[in-house]
Protein backbone atom coordinates (compact mmCIF):
# COMPACT_ATOMS: atom_id res chain seq x y z
CA UNK A 1 0.00 0.00 0.00
CA UNK A 2 1.61 3.31 -1.02
CA UNK A 3 2.13 5.86 1.71
CA UNK A 4 3.83 9.22 2.11
CA UNK A 5 5.31 10.60 5.31
CA UNK A 6 5.59 14.30 6.05
CA UNK A 7 7.50 15.56 9.09
CA UNK A 8 5.61 18.47 10.69
CA UNK A 9 6.11 20.66 13.75
CA UNK A 10 3.41 21.35 16.34
CA UNK A 11 2.89 24.72 18.05
CA UNK A 12 0.56 24.94 21.05
CA UNK A 13 -0.86 27.74 23.16
CA UNK A 14 -1.21 27.56 26.93
CA UNK A 15 -3.76 29.92 28.39
CA UNK A 16 -3.71 30.87 32.08
CA UNK A 17 -6.34 29.42 34.41
CA UNK A 18 -9.66 31.25 34.65
CA UNK A 19 -9.90 30.80 38.43
CA UNK A 20 -7.27 30.39 41.09
CA UNK A 21 -8.31 26.75 41.52
CA UNK A 22 -8.15 25.80 37.87
CA UNK A 23 -5.19 24.74 35.81
CA UNK A 24 -3.98 26.22 32.57
CA UNK A 25 -5.24 24.92 29.26
CA UNK A 26 -2.88 23.59 26.58
CA UNK A 27 -4.23 23.34 23.04
CA UNK A 28 -2.62 22.76 19.66
CA UNK A 29 -2.72 25.98 17.65
CA UNK A 30 -0.71 25.49 14.48
CA UNK A 31 1.00 22.88 12.34
CA UNK A 32 4.28 23.89 10.76
CA UNK A 33 4.90 22.36 7.31
CA UNK A 34 8.49 21.59 8.27
CA UNK A 35 10.08 20.71 11.56
CA UNK A 36 12.12 23.70 12.79
CA UNK A 37 15.50 23.55 14.54
CA UNK A 38 13.94 24.52 17.90
CA UNK A 39 14.16 22.06 20.77
CA UNK A 40 10.96 20.14 21.58
CA UNK A 41 8.85 21.44 24.48
CA UNK A 42 10.40 24.89 24.35
CA UNK A 43 8.72 28.19 25.18
CA UNK A 44 8.60 30.50 22.15
CA UNK A 45 6.76 33.58 23.46
CA UNK A 46 4.68 34.95 26.32
CA UNK A 47 2.11 37.71 25.91
CA UNK A 48 -0.47 38.73 28.55
CA UNK A 49 -0.11 35.38 30.31
CA UNK A 50 -0.66 33.37 27.10
CA UNK A 51 2.34 31.16 26.33
CA UNK A 52 3.25 29.84 22.90
CA UNK A 53 5.15 26.54 22.95
CA UNK A 54 6.85 24.46 20.30
CA UNK A 55 5.98 20.88 21.30
CA UNK A 56 8.09 19.04 18.74
CA UNK A 57 7.91 17.21 15.45
CA UNK A 58 5.73 14.31 14.43
CA UNK A 59 5.21 12.24 11.28
CA UNK A 60 2.03 12.90 9.30
CA UNK A 61 1.48 9.71 7.31
CA UNK A 62 -0.80 9.59 4.27
CA UNK A 63 -2.03 6.10 3.33
CA UNK A 64 -3.47 5.27 -0.08
CA UNK A 65 -6.40 3.46 1.54
CA UNK A 66 -7.47 6.70 3.23
CA UNK A 67 -7.51 8.94 0.15
CA UNK A 68 -11.31 9.13 0.21
CA UNK A 69 -11.12 10.47 3.76
CA UNK A 70 -8.43 12.98 2.80
CA UNK A 71 -10.57 14.06 -0.15
CA UNK A 72 -13.50 14.65 2.23
CA UNK A 73 -11.19 16.77 4.39
CA UNK A 74 -10.07 18.94 1.45
CA UNK A 75 -13.65 19.32 0.18
CA UNK A 76 -14.93 20.44 3.58
CA UNK A 77 -14.09 24.08 2.93
CA UNK A 78 -11.82 24.22 6.01
CA UNK A 79 -9.14 21.54 5.57
CA UNK A 80 -7.62 20.63 8.92
CA UNK A 81 -4.94 18.58 10.60
CA UNK A 82 -6.00 16.78 13.78
CA UNK A 83 -3.46 16.93 16.60
CA UNK A 84 -3.88 14.68 19.64
CA UNK A 85 -1.98 15.79 22.77
CA UNK A 86 -1.55 14.17 26.17
CA UNK A 87 -0.80 16.29 29.22
CA UNK A 88 -1.46 19.84 30.39
CA UNK A 89 2.13 20.78 31.26
CA UNK A 90 3.71 22.05 28.03
CA UNK A 91 7.22 21.16 29.24
CA UNK A 92 6.19 17.47 29.35
CA UNK A 93 3.25 17.28 26.93
CA UNK A 94 3.32 14.48 24.37
CA UNK A 95 2.13 14.57 20.78
CA UNK A 96 0.19 11.31 20.45
CA UNK A 97 -0.67 11.61 16.76
CA UNK A 98 -1.08 13.99 13.84
CA UNK A 99 -3.48 13.06 11.04
CA UNK A 100 -5.19 14.53 7.99
CA UNK A 101 -7.92 11.86 8.19
CA UNK A 102 -11.02 13.48 9.76
CA UNK A 103 -12.46 10.13 10.82
CA UNK A 104 -9.26 9.12 12.60
CA UNK A 105 -9.22 12.51 14.32
CA UNK A 106 -12.79 11.94 15.44
CA UNK A 107 -11.74 8.57 16.84
CA UNK A 108 -9.01 10.18 18.94
CA UNK A 109 -11.55 12.66 20.31
CA UNK A 110 -13.32 9.77 22.04
CA UNK A 111 -10.30 9.26 24.34
CA UNK A 112 -10.87 11.40 27.44
CA UNK A 113 -7.14 11.48 28.27
CA UNK A 114 -6.33 13.32 25.03
CA UNK A 115 -6.84 16.88 23.88
CA UNK A 116 -7.69 16.78 20.17
CA UNK A 117 -7.70 19.93 18.07
CA UNK A 118 -8.45 20.41 14.39
CA UNK A 119 -6.01 23.11 13.33
CA UNK A 120 -5.94 24.72 9.87
CA UNK A 121 -3.99 22.79 7.25
CA UNK A 122 -1.08 24.82 5.83
CA UNK A 123 -1.23 25.45 2.08
CA UNK A 124 1.92 23.42 1.32
CA UNK A 125 0.52 20.38 3.13
CA UNK A 126 -2.82 20.87 1.36
CA UNK A 127 -1.05 20.76 -2.01
CA UNK A 128 0.89 17.63 -0.99
CA UNK A 129 -2.30 15.89 0.17
CA UNK A 130 -4.10 16.84 -3.07
CA UNK A 131 -1.20 15.47 -5.14
CA UNK A 132 -1.21 12.25 -3.09
CA UNK A 133 -4.95 11.85 -3.68
CA UNK A 134 -4.52 12.45 -7.42
CA UNK A 135 -1.77 9.84 -7.62
CA UNK A 136 -3.25 7.07 -5.47
CA UNK A 137 -7.04 7.40 -5.18
CA UNK A 138 -9.09 4.51 -6.54
CA UNK A 139 -12.83 5.01 -6.61
CA UNK A 140 -14.59 2.09 -4.95
CA UNK A 141 -18.14 1.64 -6.24
CA UNK A 142 -20.79 1.16 -3.61
CA UNK A 143 -22.44 -2.22 -3.71
CA UNK A 144 -25.45 -2.76 -1.57
CA UNK A 145 -25.68 -6.31 -0.38
CA UNK A 146 -29.00 -8.01 -0.84
CA UNK A 147 -30.27 -10.47 1.67
CA UNK A 148 -31.35 -13.87 0.51
CA UNK A 149 -35.08 -14.26 0.85
CA UNK A 150 -36.06 -16.46 3.77
CA UNK A 151 -38.41 -19.38 3.17
CA UNK A 152 -40.82 -19.48 6.13
CA UNK A 153 -41.82 -23.07 5.31
CA UNK A 154 -38.30 -24.47 5.27
CA UNK A 155 -36.97 -26.48 8.18
CA UNK A 156 -34.39 -24.45 10.02
CA UNK A 157 -31.12 -26.28 10.75
CA UNK A 158 -30.78 -25.01 14.30
CA UNK A 159 -30.55 -26.80 17.59
CA UNK A 160 -33.76 -27.40 19.50
CA UNK A 161 -34.38 -25.13 22.47
CA UNK A 162 -34.82 -28.07 24.88
CA UNK A 163 -32.64 -31.16 24.52
CA UNK A 164 -34.03 -34.63 24.96
CA UNK A 165 -32.50 -36.87 27.65
CA UNK A 166 -30.37 -38.89 25.16
CA UNK A 167 -28.86 -35.67 23.72
CA UNK A 168 -27.79 -34.22 27.07
CA UNK A 169 -24.19 -34.45 28.17
CA UNK A 170 -23.66 -37.01 30.88
CA UNK A 171 -20.75 -36.99 33.29
CA UNK A 172 -19.08 -40.38 32.64
CA UNK A 173 -16.31 -39.74 35.16
CA UNK A 174 -16.95 -40.79 38.64
CA UNK A 175 -18.60 -38.50 41.10
CA UNK A 176 -15.97 -36.90 43.08
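Sequence proposed for the structure above (176 residues):
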Amino acid sequence: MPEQTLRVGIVAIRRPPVTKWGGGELRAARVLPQEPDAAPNSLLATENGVETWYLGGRDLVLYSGDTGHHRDNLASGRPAIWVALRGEDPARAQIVNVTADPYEGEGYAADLDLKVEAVPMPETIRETVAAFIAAHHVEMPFKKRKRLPADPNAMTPRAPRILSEQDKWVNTRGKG
